Amino acid sequence: MYTIRQNKVSRLIQKELAEFFQHESRELFGGKLISVTVVRVSKDLSVAKVYLSVFPSEGSQTILSLVKQISGQIRGTLGHKVGKQLRIVPQLDFFIDDSLDYIENIERVLHD
User: Fold this and answer.
1) H helix runs in the chain, sequence order
2) Cβ proximity of 71 and 94 under 8 Å
3) Most CB contacts within 10 A, which of 46, 81, 99, 108?
């Protein structure tokens, strides 16, 4: 069960990371559309699990590895934006959210 503080922090991180990926996707990720679908923050607010959806989904693992390589830079940028609201910027762990691919696969199986 998430506390109110965890929910507020996760929404704040999701909003700021979505803006980051929107502005940087053309330069860093070859114009792929990257959206932040879910952010889950630990109870002590020290770790944030960030789930990304990549469109088109081909090469999403490559994008994920690139995001993990620059996660320090992303955390630094996030710290500049939310530094007044958070004492400590959580460690960011990135994962691919493949729920849309799963839904498409189920729809394709049902319609065949």
Assistant:
1) 4-28, 60-69, 71-82, 99-111
2) yes
3) 81
The total number of structural domains that make up the chain: 1
Band (pLDDT 50/70/90 cuts) for residue 102 is: confident
| Buried b or exposed e, range 79-100, using 16+ CB within 10 angstroms | eebbeeebeebbebebebbeee
Q: What is the pLDDT of residues 28-84, one digit of tens each?
A: 888 788 999 999 999 999 999 999 998 887 888 998 999 999 999 999 999 999 988
Q: The CATH number of the domain where 57 resides is what? A: 3.30.300.20
- Partners of 33 in beta bridges: 55
pTM (two decimals): 0.86
54 with 63: CB under 8 angstroms?
yes
Q: Which two tokens stand for residue 11?
A: 């929404």
Domain that includes residue 102, residue range: 4-111
